[in-house]
Predict the structure of Nucleoside diphosphate kinase.
Amino acid sequence: PLAQRTLVLVKPDGVRRGLAGEVLRRIEAKGYTLAAVELRHADEALLVEHYAEHAGKPFVGPLIAMMSSGPVLAIVAEGQRVVEGFRSLAGATDPTLAAPGTIRGDLARDWGRPVIENLVHGSDSPTSAEREIALWFPAL
Ligand code: DAT
Ligand code: MG
């Protein structure tokens, strides 16, 4: 089967805490290939597009504010079933409940605003992955 790609973001909380390298390490240790890695400060327009599926939900305002509070490390990872594979590495959305052994379970917690500071984003399907990669890395 052909290789697949996914978009991973180390969110500003993760970059601020010095965990960008640890996330890259876990992606590489799992055996996926890095196709692109770039530190960038996302503007609001990009984030509104990125989170289009959540438009109108109560957490989207605070989410976009958090995501634009500092630089993110944007990563394109590649390999068979990498979309599912990275979601498995990342763990459940709520970092308080994410299983130990996962990125969120091991490295993230609730700091007073439930769920939102969960360290990483990973595309949720191959279709979302290609849409998100086109947004973040138009040249790829
Ligand atoms: P995931 O990032 O696991 O794919 P999602 O796509 O449902 O989760 O939500 C996108 C992000 O929005 C998530 O990483 C953190 C934030 N979020 C989701 N549900 C939330 C909630 N109930 N309260 C606060 N933030 C939330
Ligand atoms: Mg999602």
Q: What stands out?
A: Strands lie at 4-10, 33-40, 72-79, 120-122. The mean pLDDT is 97. The helical segments are 12-16, 20-30, 44-50, 60-67, 82-90, 103-107, 126-136. The radius of gyration is 14 Å.
